[in-house]
Structures are given as C-alpha cells and as structure tokens.
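Lab channel / #folding
Pinned by the channel admin:
"Please post every new chain as: sequence first, then the structure tokens as a reply. Keep commentary short and put observations after the output so the thread stays searchable."

First post following the new format, from NK:
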Amino acid sequence: MGRAESYDDLMDQAWDALEAERAEEALGLCDRALRLEPKGPDAHYVRGRALWDLEREDEAVAEFDRCLALDDAYYEAMLAKAAAVLEMGEDPEEAVALCDRALACDPDTESEVWAYELKVDGLMNAGRSDQALRAAERALRTSPDQASLHVLHAWVLYSLTHFREAEAAVEEGLRGEPDNAYAVNLRAKIWQRLGKTEAAERDFRRAARLAPDEYRVPIRLSPREFEALIREALRDIPLPFRAHLENVQVSAMEFPSEDLVREGLSPDLLGVYQGVTVHERDRGVFPDKIILFQRTLENVCGTREELRHEIVVTVRHEVGHHFGLSEDELARIEYGSRNGN
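Reply from TO:
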C-alpha cells in the first residue's frame, strides 16, 4: 500500500512545478494540499503565484490576501501583492505600505532586496521621487554588495536627471553584473544624455545582443527624416479628429527637457501634450502643442517601420489628451497607454 500524500509533499511538488513554469500543475497541487490543510498559508501563496502566471490577476491578489489573513508576517505574500498592485497600475501607495510591512518582518536578503526594489518603484509611481532616492540609498547602506541595488539607485538618479551620479551608480552595478542587459541599456541612455554618443550606441547594441526580446538596436534618423515620419503620422489621424487640430502644433525635440522631468515626467517619455483641452476653453486662443521626442522614440525601435508605428501611436495618444480623454478611455479606443502623459 502506498504512502498517503502529505501537505508538505504536495507543497514541495507545487514549488517544483511553479519554478518549472507549470502553473496549472502547481495550481492543482495546491488545491490538493488545501484539502488536507485548509489553513495552510504556503498553499495560498503558491496558488497566488500560479494564478498570476496564468494571468488571473484578481484571483492571485485574493490568494495573497488569504495567505496574509492566515499569517500576517508572511512577507513573501506582502511583496507578491505589492508587485501585483504595481503591475496592475493600481494604488502605488498600497504597494509602498506592503513593502514597509515586509521590511519590518526582518526578511531574508533576497526578499529584502525585492522589497526595496518594489518600494522605490512604488514611490516613483506615486510621484515621491525624493523619497524614492532616499529609499534606494538606504537599501545600499543595508546591502552594499548587491549589484541590483546599485542599478536601482542609478535608475532613480537618471529619472531625476542626475546623469553624472547615475553614471557612477550604474558602473558600480555593472561591475557586479556585467551582463545585466537592463543595466547596459540604462548606461546607454545615461551616456546618451551626457553626450557620449559612440559609447551609448555600443551599449545599445550590446543590450540588444544580451536580451533581444527586450531591446532593439535603435534606428537613427536625421531631424528631417523624423519630421517626414511625423507628417505621415498626422495623415493617419482619423478625419473627425483632424478637423479639430488646426490650432495644435506638432513638433519634435531630441529628449524631454530637464524642466519637464522635474515636473514629474519620465526622461524616457515618447511624447507630451501641452495646453488645455478643447473642453476647457474656446478654440483659437493660443496654439496647443504636441511634442515628440525623437531620441527616446528611436531608442525603443529597431526599424523605420517600428518607429513610424510608435510615432503614429504617440501622436494619436496625445491628440486624445487634446480632446480630454483619460488614459482608460485612450486604452479602450486603442490609442495605446504607454506613450505619453
């Protein structure tokens, strides 16, 4: 007669299945474990992770909450929920609070690093960039040998336009993780802002080799060629919209200015609308502007066709802002939600 399965055995199998990216199998094993031990927090946590992998986000968050209801010091569940909150675009302040709770639980080193990474991300999303910088610096004091924390510090500094300091920070991170494609790409963008064009282009190419699914070797156009692509994009704006654009200027700049970034916008911004919407004033008073940022657009495109598509999406997105559409409304009408503010 075979040995009866136990909760611990099932959970070991569930973890193995999860790490092997067999989420459905992990889910089934957790369900069997919960029949043996309905109050097992581990089963709810792993079940939440499996549901997240299956893109069942709301159910995953509910499982993390069940785990925490059974064990309010289960810091991995706090961090998994914080990551889910940020990924789903929900309240970043909730994510920050969850990270603070996790850090108060004396987590292991790996979870502590994760907590700081998520906290900094949450603070940046909440517009609390100065606090994000302090959190990144605190993380480094706690774990100075963690390369990923130096890269995190570099990202915050870059986002605040402290490019020289960001360069030093990312260099430190790359000493520990020389093949970190994200860090190589970040250094390329920092060097681009510092005028180190040749070095930047080398790093853009290297990042694309290290992670071809994530990064492209950027296409580069002359300002004249870029302006021609903008004109093509404007012709693709639907006629009902185009009829109301007589008072909107569309222009190009290389990068978002430091003043724009200090207002809370990303240095990687693709486009921005400046002015008031058609619902807020009579037309014809002052010209509104849509500004497209050539280098940041090029940085995410590997071909002319990709660049043209990104320009079209960005222009349409910013036209939507001219008409007072929210981000949710823009996403619903497929203007895309990642190309402007």
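NK: Confidence is low (pLDDT under 50) at residues 334-341.
TO: also worth noting, The first strand starts at residue 248 and ends at 253.
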